[in-house]
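Lab notebook page, bench 4
Experiment: in silico fold of construct C2
Operator: M.H.
Input chain length: 169 residues
Purpose: comparison with the prior construct
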Amino acid sequence: MTIRLLTAATLLAASLIPMRAEALDAPKGEVILTVTAPKLEHPNVDGTAQFDRAMLEALDGRTGRMETPWTEGSVSFSGPLLRAVLDAAGAHGTSLKVIALNDYAADVPMEDATAIDTMLATRMDGEPMSVRDKGPLFLVYPFDKDPGLFNEKYFSRSVWQIKTIEVSE
């Protein structure tokens, strides 16, 4: 009886200990996203978290069919949830600066990643997004799930051709 109680107590205690997240592997393909933060828990290249397409597409994501101001008709976007990317990098803070290839940048509150199912779309209608088609990454809000997001406030945060996300405390 005592051994069973001790075993049960040990298993319970072990289940209460937070599991350490897996280290982030180095990218094997072309780097399409770099995440920086003052305290990055899972850097993989020179203190940053760098991702290739395969790494991003392996993360928890979503697909949504929607209309946007930048596309013609209803299109399907798919890619990792923004919060999954930040979790993989171990990036925590209060705000994000999302920077495009042409250095256009938008400030995005961290709540947009944690409370809204925003995604970093890697595919449009099932095809990898090219730079010509707003790729390789496009910050897409879930307009399909919440029509209340379909306004200028969120349009201005919907950066395409993303290359970097800087997390601030």
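Observations: The helical segments are 2-16, 53-57, 82-89, 111-114, 152-155. The chain has five helices and eleven strands.
Next step: discuss at group meeting.
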